[in-house]
Design goal:
This is AlgX/AlgJ SGNH hydrolase-like domain-containing protein. The chain is of the alpha/beta class. The protein is built from eleven helices and nine strands. 47% of the residues lie in helices and 13% in strands. The strands form three sheets. It has a five-stranded parallel sheet.
């Protein structure tokens, strides 16, 4: 009897092993099919973007404002798009219980002010007021400084080491004001993506942007411009910065940028830098949805300026958007493009 039981158990094991192998094989095939589908979708998406970039190569410049263009249909549509995206970002951030703050930062002040700044800043200020967003305009403070001291002109207009300290000084009161604020949302480790920012994980390289201004760029394991990784469950208040190059801070080593200076000043906080080159509201929204929200920020500080509005023009998006998805022109954009660039 015992011999029969042993034989039966062995047969059952063989059957179960066979079923297990079959299930594993089916799972592997399903995963391969899904991967192939995703790769194909990416290839098709990239092809569409390439086609659009070939057909619509030009991106709008300040000629957009000719003939009272600041009140024309194109800029009006772009301003509406900006306001809607900022409202959506605010809603999503505050939906997690985090504090949402907008800071306007640009080196375009005084005689260096462009029409993008001149016409964009009043709209940004009005939008923040309408939406009830805590808003800071650092333009006057920047204008009071010597550009040759706080930036790297004439080689480049981004922050110098002294400029980064100046910027940190301007941002410091915001961090202090909201010290202790806590979000109400947490995520499981299984929900959390590998990265919260778009830098290559664990990157460490020297760049110069072709301007003979070498700088060391370090990205942590989570794709943020930081020298250490963010740990969970969090033991510190998380401060997330999203923005363009004024927060990303090219041409400065990690240790000298404003967010690193703020981190040194506030060891009880985790200051996270998820900024990117040429980022705008469209990029911040996609970054938040895909990655940034999973860093569980308690305070989200978004840097913006007047160029973020024309950056939303469809051809600009196709050239620069982090999403890499195709953007098609609205009727207003198509009309302007044809009249402006296809004469």
């Amino acid at each position: 009897m015992k011999k029969h039981i042993v034989v039966s158990m062995a047969l059952a094991m063989l059957v179960n092993t066979g079923c297990g192998d079959k299930k594993a094989e089916e799972a592997a095939q399903a995963q391969q099919a899904q991967t192939s589908k995703e790769v194909n979708e990416i290839e098709q998406r990239n092809k569409k973007v390439e086609q659009l970039n070939e057909e619509y190569r030009e991106m709008p410049d300040e000629k957009l404002f000719e003939n009272n263009g600041q009140n024309g249909p194109v800029y009006t549509e772009l301003k509406k798009r900006y306001s809607e995206q900022l409202a959506t970002l605010k809603q999503k951030v505050e939906g997690t219980g985090a504090k949402f703050v907008v800071v306007l930062i640009t080196p375009e002040v005084g005689k260096g002010m462009t029409d993008f700044t001149r016409y964009g800043h009043p709209h940004i200020k009005a939008t923040c007021a309408e939406l009830g967003i805590e808003y800071y305009d650092l333009g006057p403070a920047i204008a009071s400084q010597d550009a040759h001291v706080i930036t790297q002109v004439p080689k480049d207009g981004h922050w110098s080491k002294k400029g980064a300290i100046f910027l940190a000084d301007q941002l410091d009161p915001i961090l202090k004001k909201h010290a202790g604020h806590k979000s109400t949302t947490t995520y499981k480790d299984t929900e959390r993506p590998e990265t919260f920012g778009d830098l290559a994980p664990n990157s460490d390289e020297v760049l110069d942007g072709g301007k003979d201004l070498p700088y060391r760029l370090i990205g942590n394991a989570q794709g943020l411009r930081m020298d250490h990784n963010v740990k969970f469950p969090k033991a510190k208040q998380h401060i997330l910065f999203m923005g363009g190059s004024q927060i990303y801070s090219p041409f400065l080593d990690n240790e000298f940028i404003a967010t690193s200076i703020l981190q040194q000043r506030h060891p009880d906080m985790e200051v996270m830098n998820a900024a990117m080159w040429a980022g705008c509201t469209d990029d911040f929204l996609s970054l938040w949805d895909e990655k940034a929200k999973y860093s569980e920020p308690d305070v989200v500080i978004v840097q913006t300026n007047g160029t973020d509005i024309p950056d939303l023009f469809f051809s600009n998006r196709n050239h620069l958007a982090r999403s890499k998805k195709p953007y098609y022109p609205s009727e207003v954009e198509e009309k302007y493009f044809r009249e402006r660039y296809r004469k």
